[in-house]
Design goal:
By secondary structure, this protein is an alpha+beta fold. The protein folds into two domains: about 170 residues, 2-Layer Sandwich (Fructose-1,6-Bisphosphatase, Chain A, domain 1), CATH 3.30.540; about 120 residues, 3-Layer(aba) Sandwich (D-Maltodextrin-Binding Protein, domain 2). The strands form three sheets. It has an eight-stranded mixed sheet, sandwiched between helices. The protein has a five-stranded mixed sheet with strand order 12-11-13-15-14, with helices on both faces. Helix 2 runs antiparallel to helix 3. The longest helix has 23 residues. Bound molecules: 1,6-di-O-phosphono-alpha-D-fructofuranose.
Length: about 325
């Protein structure tokens, strides 16, 4: 069941898509409330003030007002569901308990790449959803993941473990199905290299040279959500934010960024690794756990794992 972009034989909206797949009603409620939150967030992005909120998050990064606002919007909508046990936000120093008997918990980055808003580049919300009240467990135990991309179009991509599906926000601010069961090819012709190349290890440098020699094109915006979205929707390629000489664990956070994207890409037939281990198998050491990441086309990820294993074991 696919709507070609622009065609309107019938508009399958997000709630109907979840219902027709007989997803748990409470999980449907959480995903639907996140979709509702995105309406307020996209409105704030397009009309809100920019500038520093005067507070800072766990990592010492000054929080833009939009970061704080997006966090507050999501927190309010999640509390409104009545089924959330706890929420872990990248913008907060610790996990917040909402209802110890809640059915689901979420780990999220309310506005990843927020520093890109003032140069008018795309940003996004990333969410991982867990059963029960504990988010400090391997990502393979998530029951769902989604991201919302605030770009020229506002799109939402989700998976509950039965494929990865894309929706676009229409003029009524409802999400309608664009494509379902997205697939990523074994190899890709685009790559998104994060960090600074002069700090890459020999194996990572060899991997990027391999991609360039193969004719792969560099596609990097500095926003994790749009850069991953490009690999997913183009159905090919690899994103890497590797370990660097001065960042041995890389930059991206396991709970808020890597686990949800790894879940979505694996559901699309891709792979996600820290170079030695499947991202979704990593046991979090804490809510601010960071990991290097290589994510996208399965054979490309296997290639860099092989280079690391050969050159750096
Ligand atoms: P911010 O959320 O601090 O803007 O960082 C965005 C991000 O975590 C992720 O979205 C990008 O993939 C990555 O940083 C880009 O990092 P570099 O600017 O070091 O390439």
């Amino acid at each position: 069941m696919t709507n070609e972009p622009g065609s309107t034989p019938f508009q399958v909206d997000l709630r109907r898509h979840l219902r027709e797949r007989e997803e748990d009603r409470d999980l449907t409620r959480v995903i639907s409330e996140l979709a509702t939150a995105s309406r307020y967030i996209i409105h704030s992005i397009r009309t809100g003030e920019l500038g520093v909120a005067g507070t800072s998050n766990l990592y010492g990064e000054s929080q833009l007002k939009l970061d704080v606002l997006a966090d507050r919007i999501i927190r309010k909508r999640m509390t409104h569901t009545g089924v959330i046990a706890s929420i872990a936000s990248e913008e907060e120093a610790e996990v917040q308990v909402i209802d110890p008997n809640g059915k689901y918990s979420i780990a999220y980055d309310p506005l990843d790449g927020s520093s890109l808003v003032d140069v008018n580049l795309a940003v996004g919300t990333i969410v991982g959803i867990y059963k029960g009240n504990d988010v400090l467990k391997p990502g393979r135990e998530m029951v769902a993941a989604l991201y919302i991309l605030y770009g020229p179009r506002c799109t939402l991509v989700y998976s509950t473990g039965n494929g990865t599906h894309e929706f676009a926000m229409n003029a009524l601010m409802e999400y309608t199905l664009v494509q379902e069961d997205i697939k990523v090819a074994e190899h890709g012709n685009i790559y998104a290299p994060g960090g600074t190349r002069n700090k890459y290890s020999p194996a990572v440098e060899a991997f990027v040279s391999h991609l360039e020699d193969r004719g792969s094109k560099l596609r990097y915006s500095g926003g994790f959500v749009p850069d991953i979205n490009q690999v997913l929707i183009k159905g090919e390629g690899v994103f890497l934010y590797p370990y660097l000489s001065d960042l041995p664990k890389g930059k991206l956070r396991l709970l808020y960024e890597l686990n949800p994207m790894a879940f979505l890409l694996e559901q699309a037939g891709g792979a996600a690794s820290n170079g030695r281990q499947r991202i979704l198998d990593i046991v979090p050491e804490g809510i601010d756990h960071r990991e290097p990441v290589f994510i996208g086309s399965k054979a490309d990820v296997a290639k860099v794992e092989d280079l690391i294993n050969t050159l750096e074991s």
